[in-house]
């Protein structure tokens, strides 16, 4: 598969089914994330790959309403970092940007491997950090819900079911990209 195909195919589907994930799959995902660029190569990202049913159940309890679909996941990847693990240049904190690039690499690798990897914001950060034993000073940036796509949408709301059917509308080029200078 070519990169353009992987980018086009990548979607944040919610209709998931469990699948067996081998340690080799986790290593491939981690390797893709590991190769992302970062300021001065500081690599501020940290990941916890969760497959254990007991730990998954603990994480499910931290999810916001509307994320019940995540209970069909095979794995949840916790993404965390902290400001002091990366560059701070002229008061610009790079850790979120650099960690985001690492996640982007991982999402594309998951797509190439035939998986859905859906980052979410709907969870209790403090509760999830407690379940995963992540220190308080670290920032839990996102949880990535991983599974295989299915056509079964019974765990989804009507609105969520509709978004499964076609790619959500994307902005036109001139709505987000500018040449030479920003224009209103």
Quick rundown:
The protein has helices spanning 3-9, 23-34, 53-60, 95-112, 125-132, 158-165, 173-176; strands at residues 16-17, 46-50, 75-81, 88-89, 92-93, 116-120, 139-149.
List keywords for this structure.
184 residues, alpha+beta, NADH Oxidase, five-stranded antiparallel sheet, two-stranded antiparallel ribbon
Note down, in words, how this protein is organized:
- Helix 1 (3-9) packs across helix 4 and helix 2 crosses helix 4 (95-112).
- The mean pLDDT is 95.
- The protein has a single domain (3-176), classed as NADH Oxidase (3-Layer(aba) Sandwich).
- The chain is globular and about 45 Å long.
- It contains seven helices and seven strands.
- The strands form two sheets. Strands 1, 2, 3, 6 and 7 form a five-stranded antiparallel β-sheet that branches. It has a two-stranded antiparallel ribbon with strand order 4-5.
- With 184 residues, it is α+β, with helices and mostly antiparallel strands.
Give the radius of gyration: 17 Å
Oligomer: single chain
Q: Mind telling me the CATH class? A: Alpha Beta
How many discrete structural domains? 1
Specify the number of helices. Answer: 7
Mean pLDDT: 95
Assign the CATH architecture.
3-Layer(aba) Sandwich
| Overall form | globular
The CATH topology name reads NADH Oxidase
Helix-strand string: HEHEHEEEHEHEHH
Strand percentage: 15-25%
- Give unreliable regions as ranges: none
Structural category: alpha+beta
């Amino acid at each position: 598969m070519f990169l353009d195909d992987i980018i086009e195919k990548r979607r944040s589907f919610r209709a998931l089914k469990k699948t067996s994930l081998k340690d080799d799959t986790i290593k491939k995902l981690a390797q893709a994330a590991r190769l992302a660029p970062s300021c001065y190569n500081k690599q501020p990202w940290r990941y916890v790959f969760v497959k254990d049913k007991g730990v998954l159940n603990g994480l499910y309890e931290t999810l916001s309403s509307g994320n019940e679909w995540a209970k069909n996941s095979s794995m949840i990847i916790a993404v965390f970092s902290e400001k002091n693990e990366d560059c701070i240049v002229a008061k610009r904190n790079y850790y979120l940007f650099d960690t985001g690039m690492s996640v982007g690499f991982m999402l594309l690798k998951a797509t190439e491997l035939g998986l859905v990897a859906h980052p979410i914001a709907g969870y209790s950060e403090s509760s999830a950090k407690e379940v995963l034993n992540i220190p308080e000073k670290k920032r839990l940036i996102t949880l990535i819900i991983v599974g295989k796509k299915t056509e079964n949408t019974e765990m989804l709301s009507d609105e969520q079911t509709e978004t499964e059917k076609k790619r959500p509308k994307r902005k036109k080029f001139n709505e987000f990209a500018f040449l030479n200078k920003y224009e209103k």
